[in-house]
Every structure is written in structure tokens, then in C-alpha cells.
Specification:
heterodimer; A: about 120 residues; alpha+beta; Alpha-Beta Plaits; four-stranded antiparallel sheet; 2 helices; about 20% helix; globular; B: about 375 residues; mainly alpha; Arc Repressor Mutant, subunit A; 18 helices; about 70% helix
């Protein structure tokens, strides 16, 4: 099954302390391990929400809202798409990530075919 | 992704050294070691330790051991899924539609065979490596195809086999980064898997490649497949059979509509496959591509040459393809006879229905013309 990992780190621009080179290297090592284990099938980092747009649908009306967006804690800074055998496996992998602070959300991707 | 030829060579050297030491030990001791290696691998299957197990030469050695040519194909497949895929005996049995006891026995016998043959836990080098790697790739592709060609589509265990094969292939591609055929196989599986959603219609009937809704194809898997194919092409001088088949699959994946398919390239690629591994079935596929690329008459010429082939005597796709080409040439009566013959040969009820329909259509065309 596939799971989407949402990194709810808030806006990167808003983060007071950028990651240290050591922290980056540690993350790279972890990501490398995931790739080698055949877990990662896609990933990406997002620009700050100040560069984002929202489109709201209301009947026939479309309203475009410019970023930045207010709900800082819920903002997604990056994502991973993982291929795992179970939600438990995804949780076990994620618990090993060298993160501090923030919340990471795991959501299973709906698939009709089991792929 | 950093390439690690250095680490690969070091790993191989290390295993050779271990090997030398082991040769000095008694036979019984060797048996114990193999048994322990396998036991350890199986104990490592609970989630925590499986994740902790370092992905590296140890894992590669385990893959080579589970796929050792001393074992039967069935045994290799079962052992690989059990030890490397982490599937339970029950899950494997479900995937292959055989009793649990059969799989359990296969695994027990496989372990015994490995011990009796004194199979070493190692990453083979030199000329042995080529043959051993071929066996590994064959096992992974067999697992994939078992899931892919499943007719019982509503059983979760079958797509799980595709997932498992893909994952093993992806792991192998990170471990044996310099092997073009490993990337070729991964490319082939990624591109085929990208079509899984589009292969079955709403009523459960299979949908043929050229009739599939391409918006249903998984773009992510296509992209991964094309990247793996590029990797394979950048490594090898000549493409191997897996990379060639992946290149054919890629021609379909790159075409936005069936009409845009690059048939001349597919025909050329089948020509290359036929030269590497000649077989009547490959030749029939080549004939289809030639027919699409250069007109039905050119395709029919190749198919006609296959008619006397004994191994295709009962093969329903030969008359089906021949009927299709004849129909395009306006030879409706001959086409109808071929479709009827194809329908009488196929084992698949839905396919039989389709072929009968074609025959009826040909009869109508014959009357109109």
C-alpha cells in the first residue's frame, strides 16, 4: 500500500532556526536508508505559503486567495510518498526519523487495485 | 544516488575472505551456519528488527542464496517471498492459489537443499555472478507476473505479489547499481504496474492495451520506469532482454493516445529481442508491430511464416493475430475462419466471447462486400 507523509512543519520561511548542516546530513542518511529499503517512491519540498494560492469554490463562484496562510501549524512544508506493507511499518519507519518538533501525518492513499 | 562500485568491490572481497576461512571449517559446521543464516533472516522478520537489518551486502547475499539455481523455480519463489518479502506462509499460499502445506513444505525442503548443497552465504563474483544474477531477476519477474497475470483480480493477495516484486527490484537496484539488467527489470515492472488500474473494465472484463483509458495510467510509476530505463541504457553497451522489453513498454507509455504509438521503433525493438532470445512468440509480437508500422500485408507475411511452427499449433493468439491482419486486408471470409479457430483454442471465456464477436463482424463485412 501507499502512504503519503505530510510534514506539518509550517512555513519554512517562518521557521526561526534553519536546520544545521549536521541535521541535514542526518536527514539525508535517513532518507538514503528509506530509498535503499525500497520505501520511498516520491518526495518533494514545498515553497513557503507566501508564494501559494488558494481557490475557493462556492456554487459557480471562484475566489482566489493569495498566501501566506494563517493556520501555521497545519501548513505542509514537504511530503513523501512511501510504498509499505502496512500502516504499522510506516509508523515504525517514521518514528526513526531524526526530527525534533513539528508533527508528521501519515495518510493511506486510496487505491482500487491494491497497488 | 551515489554509485558505490568501491563498496561493492570491498563487499565482494570481504565475502571472498570469509569464504576462504569457511572452506577450512568442517562440513557440519557449514550446515549449521547456513541453517543459522536462514533462521536469523526469518527471525529478522518481525517489524522492528526487519527495519533495523542493515540494507547492504548481507541482504544481497541473502537474495542470492534464496534464488540459488540449485533450487527449483517454485522453491526459489517461495523462499524469496518468505525470507526477503516478509510474507507469511499463508500469504504466499494465497498468492499462488496453492495449499498452505505445499508452501510450508517447499520452504522446509528448500532450506534442506541449500544445506546439503553447501550453498555459501555470499555475493558471488566473476562469471558465476552473471548466471546467479539472472536467476535472481527471473525469480523477481516470476513473482511480478504471477500477480500481474492473475485472473482472480478481486483477491488482494495477487496485487500484493506485484508490490512485493517491485519492492525487491527497487531494493536490488540500490544494491547492485551497476547492473543494467537490474534497472531494465525494474523499468519493465514499473511501467507494467502503471497500467494495473486500466487493465480491468467496470464489469471485470480485461481491457486490451490499445483500448485502455490512458488517463488511468499511473504517471508516477511511468516516470520511475522511464528513469530506470535511462539508467539501464546509460550503463550497458547493448541492451539485455529485460531492458529491451522495458523499452517496448516505454514506447506505449510515452504515447498519449494509442494512435501515436511509435510502431516502427517497437518493431525494431522486437527484432533486437528476437536476436537475443529467438522464440516463435516473440516473432508473433514482432509481426503485430510490423503490421501496425508498415501495413497488414507486411505483418501477414511474417505470421504466415509462423503457421507451420509446431509450438504455436494450439496457441490461440496466432489465428487471432492472423484474423486481425486478414480482416484489415478485406479478406473477411478467411478472417472469420481464423477468429473461429482462435475462439476454439482459448481457455479464457471472456476472450472466447470477444473472438466470436469478431468472427460475426467479419461474416457481416463479407456479406456487405
Amino acid at each position: 500500500m501507499r502512504v503519503l507523509i505530510l510534514a506539518k512543519e509550517g512555513d519554512q520561511s517562518a521557521s526561526a532556526t534553519p536546520p544545521t548542516p549536521e541535521a541535514m546530513a542526518e536527514f539525508q542518511r535517513f532518507n538514503q536508508e528509506l530509498v535503499k529499503a525500497g520505501v520511498v517512491i516520491g518526495d518533494g519540498r514545498l515553497y513557503p505559503s507566501s508564494q501559494g494560492k488558494r481557490v475557493r469554490f462556492d456554487g459557480k463562484k471562484r475566489t482566489v486567495i493569495d498566501g501566506p496562510f494563517a493556520e501555521t501549524k497545519e501548513l505542509v512544508g514537504g511530503y513523501w510518498l512511501w510504498q509499505v506493507r502496512s500502516m504499522d511499518e510506516a509508523v515504525e519507519w517514521l518514528k526513526r526519523a531524526p526530527f525534533d518538533g513539528h508533527t508528521f501525518e501519515i495518510r493511506q492513499v486510496f487505491e482500487t487495485d491494491g497497488m | 544516488m551515489p554509485e558505490r562500485p568501491g563498496a561493492w568491490l570491498m563487499g565482494t572481497a570481504k565475502h571472498r575472505a570469509i569464504d576462504l576461512i569457511r572452506r577450512r571449517q568442517t562440513l557440519e559446521r557449514k550446515h549449521e551456519e547456513i541453517a543459522r543464516d536462514i533462521e536469523r533472516a526469518q527471525e529478522g522478520l518481525d517489524l522492528d528488527t526487519a527495519i533495523d537489518m542493515e540494507v547492504g551486502d548481507d541482504l544481497l547475499g541473502l537474495i542470492f542464496m534464496a534464488c540459488h539455481p540449485v533450487l527449483s523455480k517454485e522453491a526459489r519463489v517461495a523462499l524469496t517471498l518468505r525470507v526477503l518479502g516478509g510474507l507469511t506462509t499463508e500469504e504466499i499460499a494465497r498468492g499462488f492459489l496453492v495449499p498452505v502445506s505445499t508452501i510450508a513444505q517447499r520452504i522446509v525442503r528448500a532450506k534442506r537443499t541449500l544445506a546439503e548443497a553447501h550453498v555459501r552465504f555470499e555475493v558471488p563474483g566473476g562469471t558465476e555472478r552473471v548466471a546467479r544474477l539472472a536467476s535472481v531477476l527471473e525469480v523477481i519477474y516470476l513473482i511480478f507476473n504471477e500477480g500481474y497475470s492473475a485472473t482472480a483480480g478481486d483477491d488482494w493477495a495477487r496485487p500484493a505479489l506485484c508490490e512485493e516484486a517491485l519492492r525487491l527490484g527497487r531494493i536490488l537496484a540500490e544494491l547492485a547499481t551497476n547492473e543494467p539488467e537490474v534497472h531494465g527489470l525494474v523499468a519493465l515492472m514499473e511501467i507494467h504496474a502503471s497500467r494495473l488500474r486500466a487493465r480491468v473494465g467496470p464489469s471485470g472484463a480485461p481491457v486490451l492495451l490499445l483500448e485502455q483509458d490512458r488517463s488511468q495510467w499511473d504517471r508516477l510509476l511511468i516516470r520511475r520506469g522511464l528513469a530506470a530505463l535511462e539508467r539501464a541504457e546509460s550503463l550497458g553497451d547493448a541492451m539485455g532482454p529485460y531492458a529491451l522489453q522495458a523499452a517496448i513498454a516505454a514506447c506505449h507509455a510515452r504515447a498519449a493516445t494509442a494512435a501515436e504509438t511509435d510502431w516502427p521503433r517497437i518493431a525494431a525493438l522486437y527484432d533486437a529481442v528476437a536476436q537475443l532470445a529467438p522464440s516463435p512468440v516473440v516473432e508473433l509480437n514482432r509481426a503485430v508491430a510490423v503490421g501496425m508500422a508498415f501495413g497488414p500485408a507486411a505483418g501477414l507475411e511474417l505470421v504466415d511464416a509462423l503457421v507451420p511452427e509446431p509450438s504455436l499449433k494450439e496457441y490461440h493468439l496466432l489465428p487471432a493475430v492472423r484474423g486481425d491482419l486478414l480482416r484489415k486486408l478485406g479478406r473477411s471470409d478467411e478472417a472469420r475462419a481464423e477468429f473461429e479457430r482462435a475462439a476454439s483454442l482459448t481457455q479464457n471465456a471472456r476472450e472466447r466471447e470477444l473472438l466470436h464477436r469478431r468472427a460475426v463482424e467479419c461474416a457481416a463485412e463479407g456479406l456487405a462486400g
